[in-house]
Structures are given as C-alpha cells and as structure tokens.
Amino acid sequence: MLDLGVKHTLIIDRDTPPGLFLRDEHSDEEVLLPNKYKPSQFEIGDQLEVFVYLDFDERPVATTLEPKVMLDEFAYLTCVDSNDFGAFLDWGLEKHLFVPHMEQAYKMVTGEQYLIFCYLDEQTNRLVASSRVNKFVDNSILTVEHFDEVDLIVTNSTEMGYNVIINEIHIGLLYKDEVFQDLKTGDRLKGVVKKIRPDNKIDVSLQRPGYRGIEPNAKKIMETLEASETGFLPIHDKSQPELIYETVHLSKKAFKKAIGTLYKERQIIIENGKGIFLKKN
Q1: What is the pTM of this model?
Q2: Over the chain, what HEC string results?
Q3: Fewer Cβ atoms within 10 A, N terminus or C terminus of the chain?
Q4: What is the CATH number of the domain that holds 250?
Q5: Sign of CA dihedral 61, 57, 97, 39
Q6: What percentage of the chain reaches a pLDDT higher than 70?
Q7: Per-residue confidence at 116, pLDDT binned at 50, 70, 90?
Q8: Which of these ranges, 40-54, 208-222, 265-279, has the smallest mean pLDDT?
Q9: What is the extent of the structural domain holding 93?
C-alpha cells in the first residue's frame, strides 16, 4: 500500500467509472482518484501529484485537495465535532482528522482551535492527531547549534515566556522580555538559537544575538532613516522598548548596540531626549 499522509507523484494508469486509477512506477501499487478530483483534461500516462489517505470505508484513496497538515507535521486546526469516541478536526479534506480521547491534552470543544501533531497509528494504520504535542519533540540529540536560524511554532505561554517547537523537532523557550508583539498558540515565525544549556534546553530569540546581530540591525536602522523624509527617528537609548520595537522591530538591547555601531562609524547623530538623525555627508 502507498504511504499514507504524504504526497505522491503517480501515473494515470486507466480511467474507470469510479475514477482514475493511479500507479506508482516504482512499486506498481495503485490507488483510486475519485471522479470529483479528476482533472478536466488528462491523458493515460500523465503524472499527477496527489495526497493519499483513508476514505470513509478505510480504503486508501487519492485526492488533489491540499491538506492543512501531513504525516509527522504540526498544525493549528479547528475542531468541527466531538463525541464519545474523540474529536474531529478540519484539515482541508472531505474526511475529518480524528483525535482519540487519550490524545487530547484537554477535552476538545467544537469551534475551538488546537495545535496538533499528525501521525500514523501503527495499531489501526490510520492517520490520527494528538494535541499532546510535547510527546513528539525531543532534545536528547540536538540538530541545531548556536546562532542557527530556525523555524518556530508557539505552543503555549508561561511565566517566563513562550514554549516553542524548533524546526518541528525540538522544544525551546522564547523569553517574554525579548518579545514585543502579541503571540498565540500556533503562530509560526523565524528565530535564532540564542543559547544551548548543558541539559540540552534551548533558548531562542527573534533577533540574532550578540555581535552577529549588530551589522544587520544597523543596516535596518539606516534603511529606516533613509526612508524617512526628515532622516530622523524619535527613538533613543532611553525610549520605551515597545516604542523601539514598533518603530524598527528590534529589542531595546539590539537597538542600542546597533546605534552604537552607527555612531562610531559616524553614520548618525544621537541627540539625547530627541532621537537619532541621519548624518549628512
């Protein structure tokens, strides 16, 4: 049987009353693409990219619809139904994605959204989801290093900040005092590995830390100054962090380092209590 939960590029083998039978040229395995997904124009031998999953009769079936999540991926999905057997999520396909009761971190409610992980249940050979997402991340062997740029998914907020999934593999922490935007569960954003602790706990930042962040941040400030009609920004090292972030999308610490660099290079003038000016040549 073709692997479930992933996309396949298959060959149109034959046209039948129920739909097109697609064949894998390497294994000769077949799957049905129902008539409702059949392209308006095709020829036998053409290739089609399809997603394969189980239909309502638990038979493998292909679709050209785009799923909101695939095998071994995280996604933020809406619960469309909940009953004694579990919950069902909208993942963009005709048959909803099932979440067993034991895989719900807390009981799912229709209409609410949840961060989930899609996996293959080996006992039933069905694609299912779990909102117990921490089961599917692992920091025992790290695949990231200091200063690596990484993809982040926000899982939940804590007193210290936000727990995030890193590259859909590891768990990390984004400190609250370094965040100047509203974040919520399911948000996806870019970040940088700030620190790796001896116990393999990972701290991340939304900005490149240390000396590696000075040059690009200084460039960002220069571009913002040059785009201003007056060549002036009403922010300085005493400004509130929120105002600095709103103006140049940098933390206060990164901003101070960047303007220090620009000042030493005689690119800007700093006037205490007013802001920074682009130095005219």
Answers
A1: 0.77
A2: CCCCCCEEEEEEEEEECCEEEEECCCCCCEEEEEHHHCCCCCCCCCEEEEEEEECCCCCEEEECCCCCCCCCCEEEEEEEEECCCEEEEECCCCCCEEEEHHHCCCCCCCCCEEEEEEEEECCCCEEEEECCHHHHCCCCCCCCCCCCEEEEEEEEECCCEEEEEECCCEEEEEEHHHCCCCCCCCCEEEEEEEEECCCCCEEEECCCCHHHHHHHHHHHHHHHHHHCCCCEECCCCCCCHHHHHHHHCCCHHHHHHHHHHHHHCCCEEEECCCEEEECCC
A3: C
A4: 1.10.10.10
A5: positive
A6: 97
A7: very high
A8: 208-222
A9: 74-134
How far is 192 from 147, CA to CA, in rounded Å?
6
Does residue 141 belong to any structural domain of this protein?
Answer: no
Query: Two tokens at 167?
Result: 């590259």
Residues 216 and 273 in one domain: yes
Domain shared by 95 and 125, yes or no: yes
Answer yes or no: do 163 and 113 share one domain. no
Q: Are residues 97 and 111 in the same domain?
A: yes
Domain boundary among 15, 43, 63: 63
